[in-house]
Design goal:
By secondary structure, this protein is an alpha/beta fold. Helices cover 38% and strands 13% of the residues. It has 2 domains: 2-10 and 262-365, Alpha-Beta Complex (Aspartate Aminotransferase, domain 1); 15-260, Aspartate Aminotransferase, domain 2. The longest helix has 21 residues, at 37-57. Mean pLDDT is 96; it is low at 367-374.
């Protein structure tokens, strides 16, 4: 299979990730729940993962909260900062993981910056929208549909100057671009483990620059005599038994990213997207969303000549995995003018090779490439 849906999940993982998950199933019990060897080994592995995140994201190990995914992490951040009916500013490229929790809170949402690949327009729009009355600002670092890199560092500076809390969704940037809790002036940064960090599904991180409100309440292995959740990180936001095998796999995924380097990963994926862009242009596709390296990662969307879902299905039948539709991000499609059609999204990873690309070219070039038996 030619897998080009890494913006959803990095399907191909380093061997060390799979091995770590299997070893944890044999060696680890629950961290913080006992002084016997399997429990202590679990605690050691969990701490190692926090320390790896500390190294990658310029934070302390205590500021690293484990979640089940980025959506979980974003819900913790949003429920901490936003009350029913509060005013919130978000970008025009947010995922439903942001839009739906805010809608559930009946938030007064201002959408700032709808011009694709224009950091200047985005920054100016946020500058106009951010006032001291805003409960918080939420901004994705990279659009999951178009790979657009938003100016989160500059937006964070605006928030800090105006005393407004700031949340960054790093779902599409963690492991690909530098992400820093300190440099972004962020109160919270949310990210999944299963995308650019090459960890297992069911893992995620919330980096905390303030004490979050618990989304779940329960056992933490600490202060067990108290009926209230602990008032310190990371325990306050980590109720229940940890996903130790997933965390062990995530640690090895982050170790892989650290060894490769985000700059190397970015340039590999970006170079593949340049080749894909040229290929689509050569084939005569008119709506291919491509920009220069400073404002786009290795994610490329295009509008096919047929229904995009049908196109993706037919490519899938021939061994090419892509994502089609609205990608759980209707705001992004509204901003780009593709809400009626959706797009087909191509998102390579470090395991994608140039040698795989001609197969996609041939299938898109053939007059009737998807008839079975031909």
């Amino acid at each position: 299979m030619m897998y080009l849906d890494n913006a959803a999940t990095s399907f191909l993982k380093p061997n060390s990730v799979r091995k770590a998950v299997n070893v944890a199933m044999i060696q680890c019990a629950s961290p913080g729940r006992g002084g016997y060897l399997p429990a202590m080994e679990a605690s050691r592995k969990v701490l190692q993962c926090r320390q790896m995140a500390e190294k990658l994201f310029s934070c302390s190990a205590e500021q690293v909260v484990f979640t089940s995914n980025a959506t979980h992490a974003l819900n913790v951040a949003i429920r901490t900062l936003v009350r029913e009916g509060d005013s919130v500013v978000i970008s025009g490229f947010e995922h439903n993981a942001v839009l739906r929790p805010l809608t559930a809170l009946h938030a007064n949402i201002t959408v700032a910056g709808r011009k694709l690949f224009s950091q200047e327009d985005t920054l100016n729009a946020f500058a106009d929208a951010i006032t001291p009355q805003i409960a918080c600002v939420i901004c994705t670092h990279v659009s999951n549909v178009f790979g657009y890199i938003l100016p989160v560092k500059e937006i964070g500076k605006l928030c800090r100057e105006r005393g407004v809390p700031f949340v960054v969704d790093a779902s599409q940037s963690a492991g690909i671009l530098p992400v820093s809790l300190e440099d972004f002036s962020a109160d919270f940064i949310a990210m999944p483990g299963h995308k650019g960090l090459y960890g297992p599904q069911g893992t995620g991180l919330l980096l905390c620059n303030r004490l979050p409100n618990p989304l779940l309440y329960g056992g933490t292995g600490s202060l067990s005599a108290n009926a209230e959740m602990p008032d310190f990180l990371p325990d306050r936001a980590e109720a229940g038994t940890a996903n130790v095998p997933g965390i062990c796999g995530l640690m090895k995924g982050m170790e892989f990213v650290s060894q490769m380097g985000t700059e190397r990963i970015f340039h590999h994926e970006r170079n593949l997207c340049k080749k894909l862009y040229k290929m689509l242009c050569d084939l005569g596709y008119e709506q291919v969303f491509f920009a220069d390296d400073s404002v786009q990662t290795g994610v490329l969307s295009f509008v096919p000549r047929e229904d995009c879902e049908l196109c993706a299905q037919r490519l899938g039948e021939r061994g090419i995995a892509v994502r089609a539709g609205l990608h759980c991000a209707p705001l992004a499609h509204e901003s780009a003018g593709t809400i009626e059609t959706g797009t087909v999204r191509l998102s390579p990873s470090v395991f994608t090779t140039t040698e795989q690309l001609p197969l996609l070219y041939r299938l898109l070039h053939e007059k009737n490439p998807f008839e079975l038996g031909k």
